[in-house]
Specification:
Layout (H helix, E strand, L loop, with lengths): L8 E11 L5 E11 L2 H13 L3 H14 L4 H13 L3 H14 L4 H13 L3 H14 L4 H13 L3 H14 L4 H12 L4 H14 L4 H13 L3 H14 L4 H13 L3 H14 L4 H13 L3 H14 L4 H14 L3 H14 L4 H13 L3 H12 L7 H7 L1 H4 L5 H7 L2
Helix pairs in contact: 1-2, 2-3, 3-4, 3-5, 4-5, 5-6, 6-7, 7-8, 8-9, 9-10, 10-11, 11-12, 11-13, 12-13, 13-14, 13-15, 14-15, 15-16, 15-17, 16-17, 17-18, 17-19, 18-19, 19-20
């Protein structure tokens, strides 16, 4: 039935049946009138929005504003629709209109803060969320969102402070427990991370992100059985996330179950063919089992994708070339690795081993000293287990001195 807004009133007809004393029936028609107001139409728009019917909701809210240009909640709702459609500038226009009418309208401030956050305007987002904490001091969400801002800025102590405030206000805030756990994980405080992930999972047993990163915390703590259980559960809950397969592959690497690692990385790449980390990691597994050409192919693909693993992939390919005695190719890749990340200690270690393989002990020790002064993918003692070239120097006094640094 077509809705016609030109009418001032909607006629609602109901039939009331009354029985007379003579058991005869008569019917009478009662007519009531419901006035169409901006509030009525706003409620219809809100219902449409809850059902994700954005186009219909927008029609209702447009109508509300034509009827009452100061109807602040309608501007806020229009902003929400644009936000959900990722039309951030249009959303800002609506939230700003709402705040022009009512500068202390907390919901519009909060929603504008979300737009600023999603567009990486973190200082402006902070200002809006901070105002909301003053207007609604018992609401956990603005405190939680300020925590997210500090996490983005890598100020994890401050982030934890605000996640904790959110949790004190709402001890069922699973995302706050998750993010506080992540803030511990990122600084290698794995027991604290696990405790927070435990609570997030108790609150939501299907919280696969929390399960997966708890598995990563167990992996870092070398609690392999618990890590395997968590990675497998996360994959069971959502097998479409390539990172879960990559994490479980890392576990199999540690257990030296390279064939299983390769199978999981195959899945990660099938899910996300742009996953440079998965290509790089699969290349490492191929190189360990002696499949040099497959390793080179995967490292090359990781480099072509140009993601976060570029420096590592160049260095890993350099190591394969070194093992194949193709030292010039190895040096070129080492240079590219250092250019991509000058703090890649592993690249300097690879260069040191190239010099060792060529019989140049002086440059071997010089570059190994640079390597240990920078972050290493593995501790030097673990590197010795992997590299026969390093094993030749285990008993050398100068090398022993490096190990003691």
């Amino acid at each position: 039935m077509k809705l016609i807004f030109l009418l001032k009133y909607v006629v609602v007809i109901s039939l009331l049946f009354m029985q007379t004393n003579l058991s005869s029936q008569s019917s009478k028609v009662e007519i009531s009138f419901e006035e169409i107001t901006a509030e009525n139409i706003y409620d219809r728009g809100a219902r449409a929005l809850r059902m994700d019917n954005y186009d219909a909701a927008m029609i209702y809210f447009d109508r509300v504003i034509r009827m009452d240009s100061e109807f602040v909640r309608a501007y806020n709702k229009r902003g929400i629709i644009f936000y959900k459609k990722e039309k951030y500038e249009a959303a800002l226009v609506e939230f700003n209109k709402a705040l022009d009418i009512s500068p202390v309208f907390g919901r519009a401030l909060f929603n504008r803060g979300k737009v600023f956050f999603d567009t990486e305007r973190f200082d402006e987002a902070f200002q809006d969320f901070e105002k909301v904490t003053k207007l609604s001091p018992l609401d956990s969400n603005p405190f939680y969102n300020i925590g997210l801002i500090y996490s983005k800025k890598e100020d994890y102590d401050k982030a934890r402070e605000y996640y904790t405030k959110a949790i004190k206000l709402n001890d069922s805030h699973e995302d706050a427990f998750y993010q506080r756990g992540h803030s511990y994980y990122i600084v290698d405080s794995f027991p604290d991370a696990i405790l927070n992930f435990d609570t997030a999972i108790i609150l939501n047993p299907d919280f696969h992100k929390a399960i997966a990163i708890r598995g990563a915390s167990y992996l870092k703590s070398k609690e392999y059985d618990l890590a395997l259980e968590d990675f497998s559960k996360a994959i069971e809950l959502d097998s479409t996330i390539s990172g879960y397969w990559t994490w479980r592959a890392n576990l199999y690497d540690d257990l030296k179950e390279y064939d299983k690692a390769i199978l999981d990385l195959d899945m990660a790449i099938e899910i996300n063919p742009q996953d440079d980390v998965a290509y790089n990691n699969r290349g490492l597994n191929y190189s360990i089992i002696g499949e040099d050409q497959k390793a080179i192919t995967d490292f090359t693909k990781a480099i072509e994708l140009g993601g976060q693993s570029s420096s590592s992939a160049y260095n890993n390919r350099a190591n394969v070339y070194r093992n194949l005695k193709q030292f010039e190719k190895s040096r070129k890749d080492i240079e590219a690795s250092i250019a991509a990340n000058e703090n890649n200690g592993w690249a300097y270690a690879t260069l040191a081993m190239v010099f060792a393989d060529e019989g140049n002990k002086e440059l071997f020790f010089k570059n190994m000293e640079i390597a240990i002064s920078k972050p290493l993918a593995y501790p030097l003692k673990e590197m010795i287990e992997l590299e026969k070239t390093l094993q030749r120097f285990e008993s050398h006094p100068e090398f022993i001195a490096l190990l003691e640094k």
